[in-house]
Amino acid sequence: MNPWPLYQPIQDGELFSSWLVRNALAHGCSPLAFSGALWPGVRIWATDVDSGMKPSLLERLTSDDFPNVAVAARRFLTDLNCVSNAEIGHGNARWILSLGYRNRRHRCGLQYCPSCFEEGIPYFRCHWRFAWHTGCLRHGNCLLSRCLQCHTPIQPQLLKPPAIDCSVCHACGGYLGFGLHNRVCLTGALQLQSVADHEMNFGSAAFAAGEWFEYAYLLLGILRYAMRSQSGPTLRMLSSLGVEIEPHHQIYSGLPLELLEVSERMQLMALLAPLVAYPPVVVVQAITEYKLPISVFGTHVSKTFIGTVARSLISATTVRAHKQYTFSKSRLPADRSVVEREWLRLQRKIFAYGHL
């Protein structure tokens, strides 16, 4: 007797977690119950299923009952290791969107294209988990990570019958298809997206894939430093390379790239696109000419950087002595930007856990 009479084949480029949710709903049960039937006693939804699944658990899906599922899950893990040299599944990894799990819930929603959901079978794509993906190359619109009706982060693992597929919000039941969403993605962000996808899939003569993503991550550090500090030398260095930081180019939260909202990442990717188009030697010369300090990279500098190009960027900076600060005992009112940052942080918590 076939235990899965309504089996749903995994789609091209589909996330493993998306496949689990679709099959659970097709069989009239919750994803929690479906995973419990496959792996009794294992709480897979308390972790990032797509990046933290143990190989021993994937072995359960190598039988003929689940064609191509384990292969697709392992292929995605290979891509993750290609772009991030951190240990996947243990904390935030570079370029991999973090979900911020707390039990089965998470603070950050899965990205999706509402136009793609309206066409054919609605499912979550693997490339939507990468931080450089902020728009749909096919439809030209921005990706979303929240329900347009209730603003709750998209968490398909919380869906349950009577939902029949991934096209509805778990919190309000609203349809996630196209609807009123028509925001066009920035052209520069889509260009960067195409370049990054090509580097991940094919590499280039100048870079190994992992080295290119290290290099691009350091350039992001320079952009965020310029936005935050409005440093004259940094702004002039970027301007010499054709990148103008405008007053509206601000990211108030101070969160890592992997935790930013789609609109904030889209802004960064659009600014990054012209920078990565230059040969690394040109960027190194500009850093040297304007005598940028090593602090322009912020926390983006770490021992995990292994590429020669990344090291050349770091070595081009100057190391300056730290200033001695004296702290007053009087408590002054907080700066407006500090208050706004804390307010945004509170909003994220409210929207993440407001629907229990």
From TrEMBL:
Domain of life per record: Bacteria
Give residue ranges for domain TniQ: 8-140
The protein, known as: TniQ family protein
Source organism per entry reads Pseudomonas lactis
* Organism lineage: Bacteria, Pseudomonadati, Pseudomonadota, Gammaproteobacteria, Pseudomonadales
